[in-house]
Every structure is written in C-alpha cells, then in structure tokens.
Specification:
By secondary structure, the protein is mainly alpha-helical. It is built from 12 helices and 2 strands.
Length: 227
C-alpha cells in the first residue's frame, strides 16, 4: 500500500459518521445541493472523503430527518417539496408556534430574558463571521428556548419536529443577508415583547418571523418549475 493510500485509509477509519451527516445536511439546507439533486454514493464519497459505509449511514439519517428521499430504482435525491406541501407544513407549524407563544407567561422571568439575550448575542456573533452551521444551530437554540417557556414539553417537541421538517426551506434563508438581518431584528423585538404583557403581539411576530423563508422557498421552486 502506498503512503497516500495509507493516509486515505487512516482518514476513513478516523471519520465520524455524525460529521458526514452534518456536512451532508449543511450542503442541502444551505442550497449547495438543490432540491431534486441526485445523491450517488460515489459522488458523496468523493465530496466528503469518506467511506461508502459512512455515506450510507448519512443518507439513512438524512432521510429520517426529512431532507433526503430514497426510492427504489431511483436512489437518493434531495427532498423536493411541492408548493402545496410547503403551505400545508407551514400551516401546522404556524398553529403550533402561535399556541406556544400565547402560553408563555408575560412579563417573562428575567432568567429567560437573560438566556435569550445570551443566545441572541451568540447568534449575531456567528452571523458576523458568516458561520452558516453556527448560525443555524444558534437560531434553533434561540427558538427552542423561547418556546420551552410555554411549559408544555409535548407542544415543544411537536414544534421541533416541524422546525426540522422545514429545515431545507428555511435554513438557506440564514445565508441570505436580507433574511438574516430581518431575523436578527425580529429576535430582538421578541425579547422586548417578552418584557411586556402583549401575548398576541408576541405570537403574531413569531408567526410573521417564518414568512420570509416560506415565501423564498416557494419562489425558488416556482423558478425551478419555470426552467
């Protein structure tokens, strides 16, 4: 075995299947692999410098998360949602979001305000250096912490499921300068509303917060269809 082959083999043995999943997920949710793109094992092995075994594990996990579709005689493709599917998924997410926001006691405890402020600071720091993975993780941490304040863990779990389901639709928006700037402003306003007593304003803002990404994804798939 050559030195090069030995090094490649060692790299594969050290590789982490969770890391391969994370890199595949990142390429999908930030639009490097567009909806409908075929995901062949050989191409992914070359792309990530990993083994077939880890690629297969990554595809199984990505399918479980709803961002990859695997079909017999077709193989794996990046999950494509129709306009009707997008609207239906967001209808459910919006209902869950509104209910969770309405259930948050206001004014919120100072501890929650401080925790969200710290998470928002981290979110902005990741945004400033364009750390896309960090932006995505900090954004989700902010929202999960916010909605956990509703006091119903089953509702929060359902919300997380729909946050994951809409990941391919919304995460690319975090790489968009206008979308990211709007997201940051709305997070700040959410924190301010938590200090007051207007639950309906907070709930409406939380619902409005997801409209930019929904509209962007609908526009993107309309453009794909047009081509």
């Amino acid at each position: 075995m050559t030195d090069t082959a030995s090094a490649e083999s060692a790299t594969l043995r050290r590789d982490d299947p969770d890391d391969v999943v994370a890199r595949l997920e990142e390429d999908i949710i930030f639009g490097r692999l567009p909806p409908g793109a075929r995901l062949t094992e050989d191409a992914l092995m070359s792309r990530y410098g990993t083994s077939r075994h880890f690629v297969r594990q990554a595809l199984v996990e990505a399918e479980r998360r709803g961002i990859v579709r695997r079909e017999k005689n077709v193989g794996a493709t990046v999950r494509f949602y129709s306009a009707e599917e997008v609207r239906q998924i967001y209808e459910v997410r919006e209902m869950l979001t509104r209910q969770a926001a309405l259930m948050i006691p206001l004014p919120a405890p100072q501890g929650l305000i401080d925790e969200l402020t710290a998470l928002q600071r981290d979110y902005c720091a990741k945004a400033d250096i364009r750390d896309l993975r960090g932006i995505h993780e900090a954004n989700d941490a902010f929202h999960v912490t916010l909605f956990a304040a509703c006091g119903n863990p089953y509702l929060v779990r359902s919300l997380q499921d729909y946050m994951n389901l809409t990941l391919p639709m919304r995460a690319k928006n975090l790489a968009d300068c206008d979308g990211l700037a709007q997201s940051r402003r709305q997070h700040e306003l959410m924190i301010e509303l938590l200090k007051g007593r207007d639950s309906w304003a907070l709930a409406q803002l939380c619902v409005d917060h997801m409209q930019f990404s929904k509209s962007d994804y609908l526009a993107r798939i309309a453009g794909e269809k047009g081509r």
